[in-house]
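Sequence in, structure out.
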Amino acid sequence: MNTKALNKLRVVGDDLHRKDREKQSPDPKILIGKIEDDYRLISKDKTKKMSAITLKYLRDHRIIKANQYVLYRQISERAEERTMVIEKNVIEWVNSKLIYLYENA
């Protein structure tokens, strides 16, 4: 390949890495208060929904899988009550991951 083509590939690669960094959640020291609030809420009732910031932190640190993140987020944004069993399972599973992370950290 010639140099112009290689330079274009580098620029595209740098843009992709920059976008990935922008998508990641802030430092956990900043989030600790919000994560603690979500933990207290969820530890009382495992069907409650956590905040988007905590959910994003769990995804970014690979505590939950990307497909679970997407499902949880879609369920959280809907106004209607959860009726499907799979949706309840996703919420309870992700919430239990937060409890496990908080209690074993």
